[in-house]
Amino acid sequence: MVGDGFGQVGRTDGRRAVEIGQRARDFQNPMTGARRQRVAAGAGFIALLQFAPIRLKTLKPKETDFEPHTLGEHLRKRRLELKLTRKEVADLLGVNAWTILNWEKSLTEAPMASIPAIARLLGCYPFSEVKPLSGHSH
């Protein structure tokens, strides 16, 4: 008989119950009826985009203009010049990519068995001339 706008108290006719139920749904979901049609058509709404600073990032090219002093540094410089990954160099030398990393960082030294393959990759023999100790002659 009496409705509070969101439900019914007592008995009402069927139309009134539907109207009250519709208002309750409209209150819970404001995107109904004609408003939903306007939003779908894009009528009367302006998109508000807040200003946000954007910083575009990219990978920096690796520096190859350093003077190598160790076998690992020579290997790293040559790898960067050829634009090869550690994995690609490792496959060429028949070792693991982590081994290449360890050689480049001078954490381990390359075994003598790997030196010929490394020399071929470098295109030269990376060690300086062997100098006799002072006072000793060969």
Structure description:
With 138 residues, the protein is mainly alpha-helical. The protein has 2 domains: 2-41, no CATH class; 58-138, Orthogonal Bundle (434 Repressor (Amino-terminal Domain)), CATH 1.10.260.40. The protein has 6 helices and 2 strands. It has helices at 14-28, 33-41, 71-81, 86-93, 97-104, 115-122, and strands spanning 2-3, 8-9. It has a two-stranded antiparallel ribbon. α3 (71-81) crosses α5 and α4 crosses α5. The longest helix has 15 residues, at 14-28.
What would the keywords be for this entry?
two-stranded antiparallel ribbon; mainly alpha; 6 helices; 138 residues; 3% strand; 434 Repressor (Amino-terminal Domain); 2 domains
User: Number of helical runs?
Assistant: 6
Assign the structural class, choosing from mainly alpha, mainly beta, alpha/beta, alpha+beta, or little secondary structure: mainly alpha
Instruction: Compute the separation of the termini in Å.
Output: 120 Å
The main sheet orders its strands as: 1-2
Any idea how many domains?
A: 2
Q: Could you tell me the CATH topology label of the largest domain.
A: 434 Repressor (Amino-terminal Domain)
Q: Which stretches are low in confidence, meaning pLDDT under 50 for 5 or more residues running? A: none
Write a concise synopsis of the structure shown:
By secondary structure, the protein is an all-alpha fold.
Topology:
Elements: E1 2-3, E2 8-9, H1 14-28, H2 33-41, H3 71-81, H4 86-93, H5 97-104, H6 115-122
Antiparallel strand pairs: 1-2
